[in-house]
Structure formats: structure tokens, C-alpha cells
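Please fill in the sequence for the structure shown.

STRUCTURE ENCODING:
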């Protein structure tokens, strides 16, 4: 951290022993290390708080960008749904298209009709008499 070698530490210990004295030196070392630890914790807390704020700013900027892209995409979809962006609502466009559509589709007169009568297309659910007739047929 401070790039202090063994010789410097030895010099500081000798000066501390001469100035403070052998009785109070251990207490002074404890007090000095406690203050140094508090100072380190304070700097670490400050560093972490700044990192959190920077991260929060980055997250908020990312959210702004995402919000803007979603808004643009929504506008693009709205324009696609409303046609060429003429400002009409989709319901108005659908109503106009229904009014312009022909009543019956054009059919080839020589082609066989694919439409079937509703009774032929779906006979409906089986009735109890149908089930009984089928059972009688299976027993014979």
C-alpha cells in the first residue's frame, strides 16, 4: 500500500519506542491500527457506494434505451396495423375493407363446388337411438 520495506518499519518502531516509551507503545500501536482500519473501512464504503451509484446510473440508462426502443417498436407496429400511417383506426380500416370486398368470391363455373350442406358437413352428436341401432348391428 505505502510500499514500506523492513528497514523503514524498523526505524519507525525504534522512533516510536524512544518517543512513546515501552509501557505505552503496545496501546499506541493498537490505537493507531484501529484508526487505520476505520479509515480503510470508510474509503471502502465510499468506493462501494460510488460503484453502486455508477451501476444504478448504467442500469437507468439501459432502461431508458430499452423504453425508447419499445416505444419506437410500438409506434412502428401501430403504423403497420393502421396501414400507411394515414391516422385511421384499425376498426375503420377493417370496415372500409369489408365494404369494398365483393359479396361472393369469384368462382369458376366449370369447377365442382366445394361447399356442402351443413347437415352433410357435421351430422351432429349421436343420439341414443343411433347408438342402439349400432349395438344391434354388432350383435347379429
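FILLED IN BY: designer on duty
SEQUENCE:
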Amino acid at each position: 500500500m505505502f510500499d514500506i520495506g523492513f528497514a523503514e518499519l524498523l526505524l519507525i518502531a525504534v522512533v516510536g519506542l524512544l518517543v512513546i516509551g515501552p509501557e505505552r507503545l503496545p496501546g499506541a500501536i493498537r490505537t493507531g491500527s484501529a484508526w487505520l482500519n476505520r479509515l480503510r473501512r470508510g474509503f471502502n464504503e465510499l468506493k462501494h457506494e460510488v460503484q453502486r451509484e455508477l451501476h444504478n446510473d448504467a442500469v437507468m440508462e439501459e432502461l431508458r434505451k430499452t423504453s425508447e426502443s419499445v416505444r419506437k417498436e410500438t409506434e412502428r407496429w401501430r403504423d403497420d396495423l393502421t396501414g400507411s400511417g394515414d391516422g385511421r383506426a384499425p376498426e375503420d380500416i377493417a370496415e372500409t375493407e369489408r365494404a369494398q370486398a365483393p359479396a361472393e368470391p369469384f368462382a369458376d363455373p366449370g369447377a365442382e363446388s366445394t361447399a356442402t350442406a351443413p347437415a352433410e358437413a357435421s351430422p351432429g352428436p349421436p343420439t341414443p337411438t343411433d347408438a342402439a341401432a349400432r349395438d344391434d348391428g354388432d350383435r347379429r
